[in-house]
């Protein structure tokens, strides 16, 4: 393993979709960049999700604005670089099962649309037309957002990594960070490197990485277990939209099968009891799936913030920036997050007011964005 260079403008810690997006945008802006990843690129939470890029996030127009910006960036990235990110439009259907959910949608629809989200309220019958597996008797209404895309997370990571390298960034995998000094000296088993700026994009390990620099990022890990089940013969040949139920159950087409997600067993719940709970929700909302066997697909950990919104900002006391706590939404926000971090490094005014993204909203007197 070759030694690291003695110094660089910026060290990015984490080689998932967030870290590679940041490295790419820093390098393309002329910032000397070294990315350090403890394992393989994309081996953390980037490969753990349901693989959907969407723009509608119920109840949070700020997240939606980041997602709208990111989707546009993905399309532009493909056109500019020729890298196929594997985006295929399937749409997003969010089911509502009580009147309060419907009223909440009505109260927030204007803010969502102002953020650039294409979303409308549809009837149960229309929800069943958009996803024929839905039992319209089990829902009161639904939100429909056509701008949601099935994607290949690995292709997105590869695309940004390739572009970062072409712009001059150095990407080092299998290189864990073991220490971060106040002056920006980053230590690894391959040697140490001094950086003017250190950026933490370490996903589920972000809290531990930040602690090495004596910075607190209040993220926790949330385990998820993705399941697969057979597609019923009655299902349409076209891909089913990503469909979300208030119970946290979500399904979408996955090749010739159906991907099912609903977290993982609770601490006091057996796996069998959890699978029975998933099956019950499936059978109630999607009767054609009642009694279907559920097989393990893959599992992993997500980096989660207390309020489900990412932390993107910088520490006031040292040259340390962070982009973490995306709560399973990193694919949807990576390009926008990369832009924000790039602008912070360049001390450039951002396209959006980033104050609300700082850890200060959860840590009294802590870091704020500039």
TrEMBL record:
SUPFAM superfamilies named among the record's database cross-references: FAD/NAD(P)-binding domain (SSF51905)
Superkingdom to which the source organism belongs: Bacteria
Record carries keyword Hydrolase: no
UniProt keyword Cell inner membrane, yes or no: no
Keywords noted in UniProt: Oxidoreductase
Residue stretches making up the FAD dependent oxidoreductase domain: 9-344
Xref: InterPro entries: FAD-dep_OxRdtase, FAD/NAD-bd_sf
Transmembrane feature ranges: none
Protein name in the entry: FAD-binding oxidoreductase
Organism: Streptomyces siderophoricus
